[in-house]
Amino acid sequence: xxxxxxxxxxxxxxxxxxxxxxxxxxxxxxxxxxxxxxxxxxxxxxxxxxxxxxxxxxxxxxxxxxxxxxxxxxxxxxxxxxxxxxxxxxxxxxxxxxxxxxxxxxxxxxxxxxxx
Length: 116
Hints:
Layout: H1 3-6, H2 8-25, H3 52-111
């Protein structure tokens, strides 16, 4: 497996993270037309900061964001360690092949008649 293929899952995570951050910062440039028939609902968290439930909600949101960050970094770490393990396995296979070649050479030398 090529080095590029091994790191593709880490690149996918990075691309996903960048897309997620971009979607969080994107805003709709077109104004929304409001109907007079509908009552306006204010989804702004700033107006509800006086409510004790709002403070708990903000703390919960902060904790969720921290957990998302932790999950992201642990996923990156797992991906790195998995790729490192693959590299070690490939290195181990190369060493095993070298040992087999050396054993074959040693057997060939042992089979040769000795000259004294």
